[in-house]
Amino acid sequence: MNDPDSSFLESYLPPNSSPEASPEFEGELLQRVHHHRRMKQTYRNSGIAFVVLTVALGIQVFQNPPAQLQRGFQRRQAAQAGVDWLLDQQREDGSWNVVAQGGHGSFSVGTSALALSALLHAPEGVSRDNMEQAGDFLQQALAQQTNGSSPLLYNELMAMHSLLELQARYPNNERADFLRERVAGLIQLQQADGGWGYQAGGSLNYGPVADNPSNSAVTWWVCRILEQAERVQPSGRRTRSLEAGQAWLARCFPEEGPIRYTPNGSESDADEALYWMALLGQPGRLESEALSSSGNRHDAYRDWIRSRSIQNDGMTRDLLAQQDQDGSWQANEDRWKRAGGRIYATAARVISLSPPEA
If DSSP codes are grouped into helix, strand and coil, which group holds residue 88? Predict the structure, then answer.
């Protein structure tokens, strides 16, 4: 194998050069060889220094990770602990015993749907069997619901939302047909002004509330479901209904001014989920108003909606501090504790800690 220095020297020899070179020529060659060797050593030293520096920086980052990286790890760890707790509570039929965890039996379907959504947001993933069992339960429960005093509205909307998430992850022809039929049913309940409200005797029934004018809370959820359905099952047939619903919502969610329950109704603030529903579609307003806003009362539902647009260290610290050692979250002081209990609180917190959807 040729010596690299010899090859370098030979490159400077003139063609057909005489072996008896002049002293001046020999001196120049020696200078060039010494310079070449110094440069090689410099390159070696630089490479070694680069490797040492890279390793040192890596160790430093590992030992003292940036605050953002550390906070992200804590979020994932807490969310996964919540998911593990939910999996321990899941029953063989795919549902969750809401009553045993402090909730109301009438909200079992909607709360189980929220738990399924939490599994779909798990940082480390969950067995498909667990999610499919939950999906089968929700599909059967919706098909068997009868009109009455139960809150069919929340069961319907939450279940549809979660089933569409499941369908996006694991396409299923039977579920696709079921969802297509349920979405068509929601479209039929659209009111003449373009919105949706509580309606007695159907999937938008809400206990003692009789037929009710359109309101922004129900309309927002139905529009969200129509958007999901169009992404999962594109058809174009829902476009007119969705556009009418969004136009009605714009009257309640103006770019400037108060957020309202109805176009001329009561105002909403940062303590309520409705406020954050509105700001999800208003990035400019979100930056100018919402970053400095926070709710004062415990409301996992509000925080879930809020987290889809904003996640900050303050919210993360609060959620981590409130988590029990078993991975769950209590609902003792929550606004909706009587509806979903600990299942609801834990599922909503898991989603709140997960990255917002793209």
Answer: helix
At 308, the amino acid letter reads R
Spatial distance between the Cα atoms of 279 and 290, rounded to a whole number of angstroms: 8
Contact 131, 166 (CB under 8 A): yes
Query: Quick one: 41 and 167 in the same domain?
Result: no
In which residue are the tokens 């030293």 written?
Answer: 45
**How far apart are the C-alpha atoms of 244 and 222, rounded to whole Å?**
12
Contact criterion met (CB below 8 Å) for 248 and 194: yes
Q: For residues 126 and 50, state if they share a domain.
A: no
**Distance (Å, whole) CA 243 – CA 319:** 36
79 and 41 in one domain?
Answer: no
Identify residue 278 by its one-letter amino acid code.
A
- Per-residue pLDDT tens digits for 80-114: 999 999 999 999 999 999 999 999 998 999 999 99
Q: Which domain holds residue 114?
A: 70-234+311-353
pTM: 0.77
- Is residue 260 classed as helix, strand or coil in its secondary structure? strand
Q: What angle do CA 17, 22, 25 make, to 5 degrees?
A: 75
Q: Classify residue 126 by burial, with Cβ atoms within 10 Å: 0-12, 13-18, 19+.
A: buried
